[in-house]
Structures are given as C-alpha cells and as structure tokens.
Design a protein that fits this description.
heterodimer, A: alpha/beta, Rossmann fold, nine-stranded mixed sheet, about 25% helix, B: alpha/beta, 2 domains, five-stranded parallel sheet, 9 helices, 15 strands, ETF_asu_C_CS (chain B), FAD (chain B), electron transport (chain B), ETF_asu_C (chain B)
Chain lengths: ~260, ~325
C-alpha cells in the first residue's frame, strides 16, 4: 500500500497572522497544520495493520515548509516530498491543488490522505479538487476510516442532518476530521530518525506545471484585508440574585423576547 | 441582464432559508436561475419566484442516494449552456465540495465562506472572514466563471416576485460519478429546533454545564427563545452533547442575531466559530473568562441560578 499524506505549513494558530503587501499570508515561523496530524496518524495506523505500507508526506510551500514535513516524518512515515518554487508564492486553492495533483500523479498513491481543512485558509476545497484532477473517488470528512483486503476504503461521515457511510475502491482521496482519533506525539527517537529520512525537493519544472498557472496567476485576487475592529466593551454585571431577570431585561430591550 | 446560477439543492417540501438567501444575493448580480432537485412542486416554484427566480431548472433523478459530486456534472453542463456571471452554492461541507469540483472543471476561481456578495465593475466582490474571523477579506475571481459558496445568514432574504419558467432535465450519471458509493444514509432524529447554522438564536453550553443531563436546561432555554442548541468542544469531547452541535473551528461556524454562551470560557477555537454573531451574551461564574471580552451583555454568576431565573422571567413576560 502506497499512501501519500498531503500536509500544509501554516501560521501558528496561537499567533496573530501577518500579511505581505500583496495580501499574502506571511509564512515565516509556521508549523505543521494541527489538523494534518490526524491524517498522518491515520496513515501510520495503516502501516501497523497492512504489511508493506509506505507513507510519503507531501507539501507545497516555501523553503520553511520543510519543517512541516520533518514534523510529520517525526511522527512516522518513510519519505517526504516538498514542492517548492519561487513562482508558487501567492497560489490559491486551485493552483495548490493543481501542483499537488501533478506531484501525486508522479507518486501514484493507492490512498491520498488529507485533513478536513487547513487551519489558515480553512476552505476544505483541496481534497475535492484533488479527486477531480486525479479522477479518483472522494471520501471526505471521515470520522472513521477502514480499509479492507479487497482494496475498498470505507468511511463514516457526520453530516448535519444525517450520518453517511461511504465506500470506494482504491485509489481514492480521503479527508479526515479531528474526531477520527488522536495523533501520536513524535518520540525523541522519531525526531532523530526523521532527520535521516529522505526529503526530496521538486520544482514546478520537475512536475511539468507551467509557472504561469500558479502563484501570481491565481484565479482569485484579494483586494483588501482589514483586522476586525474589537467588539465594543459590553455590560458585565455580577449576579446578586437578579442576574437572570436583568439578562431578561437586556434581551427584551434587544427585542429577543 | 446576465444569468446567475443558484444551486438550491434538494427540495423536500419547503424551500430552505439558505436557498432564499442565495436568491436574494443573486439578484444583485443578475437574473437568478435556480438549479434544484427533489419535489420542486408548484408551491416550491412559487416560493422561488417570490424571491426572484426567473427560471427554475429541476434535475430529475431516480437515484435518490446520489453523492453530491454528481451535481457537478449537471452544473457544469448548465454553466456551459447558460454562461452565467456567477454560480452560487451554500457554503456547507457538501456545497463547498461541489464548488471545488465545479471550479476545477470550469478552470476558474472559487471563493468559499462568503458573508457578503456585491456586484462590482470587475465581477462579484466577495467578503469573507478569515483567521478565526479576526479579519475581513474582500476578494474577486479573476479567471473563469466565479463559483461562490455563501454562508447561511449572510443576508436577510427579501422578496422580489416574478413568475419563473420551469425546465426539467434528467440527471445522467456516468460511471465515474458513481465511484463513491453511498452504503447507507441515516437521517438524524429531528429535534424540532432550527438548524444550528441557520438559526437566528443559538444557546450554547460548555464545561460549566458539568454533565449531559444539564443540557436539558439549555434545551428549555433554546425552546423558550426559538433557538438552536450549540456546545463547546469541551462539552462535546466530554460526551455531553453530539458533535454535530459543536460550535468552533472544527465544528460549525455560526453567525446568529443572538448567541448566548452558557458556562463557556471562550477559547480561541470556540471564538472562531461564533464571534461574528450580532449580539453575544455570556453567563459564566469566572469573571476573567475570555468570553466576556466578546460579550455585549454578561452575567458573572452561577448558571444554575441565572438560567432558571431567566426562563421564569421569559415565561412571565410572555404571559
């Protein structure tokens, strides 16, 4: 079984994001997207159950994005591929998916694993776009995943109004939620081993993706980014026996009652 | 004027509020052409017309379990036919995936989680909230037909009555569309409350509730106010309330008129899911809880005193 996990290098969710003059996210000082760890974990669980499984982590991003791959390799897996090229900066979801799809064609996985979303853009677009590019079935937002010996992957998807059980033959694209099982922490041994695992860097030319299709040639343009003004300070009252009634008074003034 | 494709989805009985919101926004861009499936009967068509649908195209399919990606084939064909100025879908997990695949097929741009859509000289201008809703971003699609996924509650639906023409077409699926098999679909039991993402009022509970049984108190409050019930990740992880009700980064994002946070401290992951609510009210015994930084009105106190008193007062005022 050949599994590729698509991961992303994102700004730390605990810090304020910064933007460049071109309205791009400043990617300095980032990390492996926390939600990606759930996808890495699922790949590693397959390794434990299906002998001969090989796991490759794949990312598209600036040179520093290699850190996200090293972190994923520290959790486990065999190798990593970093698609990096100056022309990629500023790519939107369609451009990123185009590049990932080209890299995936070369890696020819049986299973492509992604997170439900990135923690920065958070669009959830890329897994479906990969499935469309690669003409693979998609099984997205999995809260449970299993593989059977016949080469069928099955998932449980919790939609708002229903629970769906979906299945597809391999190769397939699967995205997983944070309900699917806690990711392991990299061990010290894992961190040391990750430094020796092969990490290849591919350029757009290596993949035959024209530079004019990505980066500044994105299909969308951001005109403006403004920080949300802080909410005006509200009225905070201690409950001195009348808290519920006073709250009802506020809700009534605001026409909610 | 040009056409705007509006994917209303499957109509079972009534047309849902998100569909009417999409129509209201679509009218700013051109003449709405609705694409739907299901029981698009006379009443449904009349409703769509009341909100400005110039045309209603009903996709007929005897494959009730069709996976959402099957929609993409129909939409791509219609887009080629109608040449719309934009395609609007709901920014739900299904809606975003339809948008994703359609944009690849059309080789164009896509914008998700739109909270506003306006006509501009260079095509639709889309407003989104980014980075835990800490930033407001305006963007445009500059290649291909703009595909825009719009969040529920982005606009208050308004009427603009017309009499729509109705066309019907069969959904012809190809083998590739069936590669994802739907093994089973189990509908959740209806709570009788509004959908969390669509509700005007959301009452959410967190760690302070202390247990699953105590959520009954919040359900009573939600019912008294006509709202939906939400929960923080802490409450969901503790098994007190179903995950489908989780408000926050990895749950649903809500933007109701009123968000009432009860026993919720307000961690960044939770704030990401609710801080764009119009009015925020918090009840928490910890005066230092970060949720109070967002609150328009807050009560520092024991929720088991404050909420029952609020319920009594609501009942008294209504009596």
């Amino acid at each position: 079984m050949n599994i590729v996990v698509c991961v992303k290098y994102v700004p730390d969710t605990g810090s304020q994001p910064r933007f460049t003059a071109e309205h791009r996210v400043d990617r300095a000082g980032g990390r492996l997207s926390e939600l990606d760890e759930y996808a890495v974990e699922q790949a590693l669980r397959v390794v434990d159950t299906v002998p001969g499984t090989r796991v490759t982590h794949l990312t598209v991003g600036p040179p520093a994005a290699a850190e996200a791959l090293r972190r994923a390799l520290a959790m486990g897996g065999d190798a990593a591929v970093h698609v990096s090229d100056d022309a990629i900066a500023g790519s939107d979801a369609p451009a990123t998916a185009l590049i990932l799809a080209a890299a995936l064609r070369r890696l020819s996985p049986d299973l492509v694993l992604c997170a439900m979303a990135s923690t920065d853009g958070g669009t959830s677009l890329v897994p479906a776009m990969l499935a469309e590019h690669l003409e693979m079935p998609q099984l997205t937002f999995a809260s449970e995943m299993s593989l059977d010996e016949g080469g069928t992957v099955r998932i449980r998807r919790e939609a708002a109004s229903e629970v769906r059980h979906l299945a597809a033959g391999l190769p397939a694209v699967v995205s997983v939620t944070d309900r699917i099982g806690d990711p392991r922490y990299p061990s010290f041994k894992g961190i040391m081993a990750a430094k020796k695992k092969p990490l290849e860097t591919w350029s757009l030319a290596d993949l035959g993706v024209p530079a004019g299709r990505v980066g500044a040639a994105a299909a969308t343009v951001v005109d403006q980014i403004t920080a949300r003004p802080p909410r005006a300070a509200g009225t905070i009252v201690p409950d001195e026996g009348e808290g519920g009634r006073r709250l009802a008074g506020f809700l009534s003034e605001q026409k909610f009652i | 004027m040009s056409d705007v494709l509006v994917l209303v989805g499957h109509i079972a009985g009534q047309v849902g509020k998100p569909g009417l919101e999409l129509l209201t926004l679509a009218r700013r861009l051109g003449d709405p052409v609705v694409v739907c499936a299901g029981e698009a009967d006379e009443a449904a068509v009349e409703t769509l017309g009341r909100y400005g649908a110039e045309r209603v195209h009903v996709i007929e399919s005897d494959e009730p379990q069709e996976y959402p990606v099957a929609w993409v084939r129909a939409l791509a064909a219609l887009t080629a036919d109608v040449r719309p100025v934009a395609v609007l879908t709901e920014s739900t997990p299904d809606g975003r995936e339809i948008a994703a695949r359609l944009s690849v097929r059309l080789d164009g741009g896509v914008l998700t989680d739109a909270v506003d859509v306006q006509a501009g000289p260079d095509g639709p201008v889309v407003t989104q909230w980014a980075f835990a809703a800490g930033y407001t971003v305006t963007s445009r699609v500059v290649r291909g037909v703009p595909v825009i996924a719009v969040k529920p509650n982005a606009v208050v639906p308004s009427e603009a009555p017309v009499t729509p023409s109705v066309t019907r077409g069969a959904l012809v699926l190809e083998e590739a569309d069936r590669r994802t098999r739907v093994v089973s679909r189990t509908a959740r039991e209806s709570t009788g409350r509004p959908q969390l993402t669509e509700a005007d009022i959301v009452v959410s509970g967190g760690r302070g509730l202390g247990g699953a049984e105590q959520f009954a108190l919040l359900e009573r409050l939600a019912d008294a106010l006509g709202g939906a019930v939400g929960a923080s990740r802490a409450a969901v992880d503790s098994g007190w309330y179903p995950h489908t009700h989780q408000v926050g980064q990895t749950g649903v994002t809500v933007s109701p008129q009123l968000y009432l946070a009860v026993g919720i401290s307000g961690a960044i992951q939770h704030r990401a899911g609710m801080q764009t609510s119009k009015t925020i009210v918090a009840v928490n015994k910890d005066a230092e809880a970060p949720i109070f930084e967002l609150a328009d009105y807050g009560v520092v106190g024991d929720l088991f005193e404050v909420v029952p008193q609020l319920l009594d007062e609501v009942a008294r005022r209504r009596a």
